[in-house]
Amino acid sequence: MIDLHKPGLVLFDMDSTLITIECIDEIAELAGYRHQVEQITAAAMRGELDFAASLRQRMQLLKGVAQADFQQLFEPIPWSQGAVELLTWFRQLGWKTAVVSGGFTWFAEQLQQQAPLDVVIANRLIWDGDRLTGDVAEPIIDAQAKAAAVTQLAQQFGIAMEQTIAVGDGSNDSLMLQQAALGIAYCAKPALQAVADVVINEPNLSAIKAHLTQ
Predict the structure, then answer these.
(1) Which of 28, 102, 169, 210 is deepest in the core (most CB within 10 A)?
(2) In whole numbers, what is the pLDDT of the chain averaged over residues?
(3) Domains of the chain in sequence order
């Protein structure tokens, strides 16, 4: 049982969880490959494709996109409803907050500048000057890496594992949700709902606070 009066750690997926978009799909729009990339993303989210392999496959289609074009995707940041309020509430409780994402640090670090996030863990893009090479740095943040982050960050912050919460929406979050004491599926794919402790289908992250305080 989560005790909100004790120190804790909450980990969030980023794309389609803390924010409303899938960043890689939006980058693909800039490259003219949205349809192809969306299809691969959807299959990976359903658990039909290996995440790391699907990410490498998608990145190859994005070669040549300019870093300057990214900014339009985050002006303003497409926060999910209730996201900043929920992060602020956890901070007020004295909890540690983290983004653990199969997306990209370029975006996650911007979230950290605007909301109370102690840690961001995500994939690092590789650039040739200011343009994408079509590659992503190793190691890739996949389902196993997300699950490992729960234990690593709990140890780093001196937080008991029974005081950990993980929130996500796709199959790549399944191991993370199972590793945490409380796994919350937020507007999630069926594969994730099946392994979650709590399922929230209301598109408002404030529903998590309501659930925890009821």
Answers:
(1) 102
(2) 95
(3) 9-213 (3.40.50.1000)
**Given 3, 15, 25, 69, the catalytic residue:** 15
Find all residues with CB under 8 Å of 87, minimum gap 6, and list them: 18, 97, 115, 116, 117
Q: Helix, strand or coil for residue 3?
A: coil
Q: Give backbone dihedrals phi and psi of 164, rounded to 5 degrees, phi first.
A: -115, 140
Let me know if 169 is a catalytic residue: no
Tokens found for residue 184: 């919350």
Q: Is the pTM of this model over 0.85?
A: yes
Secondary structure (3-state) at 204: coil
Q: Are 22 and 43 contacting, i.e. CB atoms less than 8 angstroms apart?
A: no
**Is the bond into 139 cis (omega within 30 degrees of 0)?**
yes
Which residue out of 13, 25, 118, 173 is catalytically annotated? 13
Asked whether the predicted pLDDT for residue 15 surpasses 90, the reply is yes
CA distance 90 to 49: 34
Query: What pLDDT score was predicted for residue 45?
Result: 78
Q: Which 3 state secondary structure label does DSSP give 15?
A: strand
Q: Is the separation of the CB atoms in 96 and 119 below 8 Å?
A: yes
Q: What are the φ and ψ backbone dihedral angles of 142, each rounded to 5 degrees?
A: -110, -165
* 197 in catalytic set: no
**Which regions of 152-210 does DSSP assign to beta strands (E)?**
164-168, 182-186, 198-200
